[in-house]
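Give me structure tokens for this 91-residue protein.
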Amino acid sequence: MATDTSTVLIDGAEVRITTETAPLGDVTRTVVVPVIQPGRQDQNGNDVADIPLLTLPGGAAALTAHLPTGYGLRMEGPQARHRRPCARWTC
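Here you go.
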């Protein structure tokens, strides 16, 4: 299994993004946002960390988490919609 991990500063939070490619080609993406700390450098002026979780092909955010101080997040799932007619564990 091939793995690629990067850390990106988004709205004052260090977000870790991991992409794993399974031997059959399925790609899983994991986004980890650590607990938002007081005093972080907010970039939008709205006092929450605005973390895009899913983006559209043009780069616009399709799903964004708005995390206040004291909250974190972990999201994991397929990087793209499965094109097969059935789930990978039933075929």
